[in-house]
Amino acid sequence: MSTASQNSIHYKSNFKKIVEVIVFHEYYINRNCSTIDFVLDQQNRSLIRNYGLLFKQTGQGFVILQRVDSKTNSASFSGPVTFVFDMVFKDLLFLNLTNIPFQYSQLLNFTNEKASGERLHEEVYVGENEIRPYSENGIAGKLTLTINQENEFFGKESDGLNIPTYQYRINFDTRTFVLRYNFYFTKQSGDIKKYYVLNEKDGTRYENFISRKLENGIEAFSLELSEEIKLKEKYEFLFYLKKEDEFDKSFSKFLPHPEPINLNFDEEKKVFFNDLFIALDL
């Protein structure tokens, strides 16, 4: 038997999972969000050890494990105990792809004392109810878990057979946006009327280009796809730029899919655009 196998058996036989927190995000294909770390400060690390527990990050959240032969059944361990975890958002584009208030200083606050079933937030997805003021730049998070309300883990004799496992979820939704392709010519003689965009999936044709000046002064011809869509890790639609030209009938240019980095909020229209820029006649 390999060392890895021996360690795995030893790990499973000596610990029982009592708490699990899992983070989901609608942006990802499998909804598994692995871009958030949960961190304990020194005080909470000491508290975990004092109760004979093991804290382990899972990549999609974390688990708290209790040693099967835990020595925490004396009355001195009875009563509720609270652990506080700091949440570290590792994805610099988390605000772009997540449907929460679009502001750069906010604290997401979660607690199981107000949990809705397994959810650590009031609505189906995290929203404004979980937002708190934050004096620093960026997004931060705090998760407060209180357990042992009925001495189910500590403070009384137990045969270990009826110890519960609490599982909690945090569900993030993804932003909706309007996809906007911006075409510009590298030559003065370009004629946008020769071009159109074709949806390869359903054959829909788009050609209602709108001329506008970009911030760098370049004239662009923008095409807004009116139906709002959700940011995703992968899209099924395929758009191609086509050209009606008797001398170049084979022209077909695949148009890229939207990315979170291209998201911006239009204050006037009160909508998020995902802008993609395509040079013509290179």
Describe the structure.
The chain folds into 2 domains: 3-172, no CATH class; 176-280, Immunoglobulin-like. The strands form 4 sheets. Strands 2-5-8-6-7 form a 5-stranded mixed beta sheet. It has a 5-stranded mixed beta sheet with strand order 13-14-10-18-17, with no helix packed on it. It is elongated. It is 9% helix and 41% strand. It has helices at residues 3-14, 42-50, 94-97, and strands at residues 15-25, 36-39, 53-57, 61-67, 81-89, 105-111, 131-132, 138-147, 166-172, 176-185, 195-199, 205-206, 210-213, 219-230, 239-243, 252-254, 263-266, 271-280. The model is unreliable at 1-11 (pLDDT under 50). The protein is mainly beta and 282 residues long.
Produce a short descriptive summary:
With 282 residues, the chain is mainly beta.
User: What class, by secondary structure content?
Assistant: mainly beta
Biggest sheet features: 5 strands, mixed
Structural domains: how many: 2
Query: What percent of the residues sit in helical stretches (DSSP H or I)?
Result: under 10%
Uncertain segments: 1-11
Which tags fit this structure?
single chain, 282 residues, mainly beta, Immunoglobulin-like, 2 domains, five-stranded mixed beta sheet, 3 helices, 41% strand, disordered N terminus
Any chance you could write out the topology, listing elements then pairs?
Layout: H1 3-14, E1 15-25, E2 36-39, H2 42-50, E3 53-57, E4 61-67, E5 81-89, H3 94-97, E6 105-111, E7 131-132, E8 138-147, E9 166-172, E10 176-185, E11 195-199, E12 205-206, E13 210-213, E14 219-230, E15 239-243, E16 252-254, E17 263-266, E18 271-280
